[in-house]
Amino acid sequence: MASPPAPAATATATATATATAFPGFSAPGAGFEVPLEMLAACHGRVQAQCDTLLRLHRHIQHHGCDRAAQQAGLAVMRYFDTAARHHHEDEEQDLFPALIDALAGSDARCVQALVDSLGEDHRSLERRWAVLRQGLERVAAGEPPQWPPDEPQGFVQHYQAHIAREEAELLPLAARLLDDASLDRVGRSMRGRRGLGGA
Hints:
- This protein has 7 helices and no strands.
- By secondary structure, it is mostly helical.
- It has a single domain (about 5-15, about 30-195), classed as Four Helix Bundle (Hemerythrin (Met), subunit A).
- The longest helix is centred in the middle third of the chain and has 36 residues, at about 105-140.
- The N and C termini lie far apart (about 50 Å).
- Residues about 1-30 have low confidence and may be disordered.
């Protein structure tokens, strides 16, 4: 018999095992005092949830919307409805403006093009997530998801490409350009967004 998706344990194990080695940082756990490392660590958690989504999709094809599928569907919805949404807001409301403020002239135009493109990507991912979320609501209720057959894989591939671009371009640029005061402001705002104070 196939093993169930086991979302919580897998996500936790993956997030723990993926202590992000972001250039310039060496702390094993990312906190708001190192916002760039925290953003990079979030990418590992997004990937863990994407992996769960793909396992869930395969599980449903073979076992239907059993109890394990329902629990996995709820866990994926919780993550993308909260943590992933906060991650996009962290970037768009805090990191992107900080980068623009750190530059002038033609450099600012290049960075603006990058953040505009990443923001558009966020909107596209959010639209795709809305389709998947409707299917996961059905799964959580014990019903087939009725999403396009290739949509889970397409969503995951889209997110993987987005993460790769942020890690190759956005985060290294931010590490190079943002001073401690700017990073502190970003980190405090990220805490506030999660209701932890310090905004």
